[in-house]
Amino acid sequence: THFPPTMAEPIPAPFAWPEFKGPSSAVIKAPKTWQDEAILVPHECIRWWSKELKLCLKNFDAAPGNEWKTEVIFKFINNYYGDCVHHHHDSEE
Fold first, then answer.
1. What is the pTM of this model?
2. What is the pLDDT of residues 56-66, one digit of tens each?
């Protein structure tokens, strides 16, 4: 097997979408208005991505030969995570 895996190869770890349990917000526990929902939607995504990134970094191995992992994680942060947070905060202002 070569790394990084190609699109034709199976994902090395099983993935399942998290079970929906309602908002993870400590402030808005039960949205009542469209304003509540409008703020929750992007925050739920950002919280979920943050939690998943923390798990990835916990298991991150930067040993020689794994340089591709650094490239992949930074591409995700720069192209998706960072843009999402940035655009969300721009829209809040």
1. 0.63
2. 888 888 888 88
Q: What is the DSSP string of 22-73?
A: S---SS-SS--SHHHHHHHHHHHHHHHHHHHHHHHHHT----TT-HHHHHHH
Give the span between the Cα atoms of 27 and 71, in whole angstroms. Answer: 36
Cβ contact 39:19 at 8 Å? no
E-strand ranges in 1-93 read none
Q: At what angle do helices 67-76 and 34-58 cross, to 10 degrees?
A: 170
Question: Under a CB-based contact definition with an 8 Å cutoff, are residues 31 and 23 in contact?
Answer: yes
Q: Which two tokens stand for residue 69?
A: 């992992």
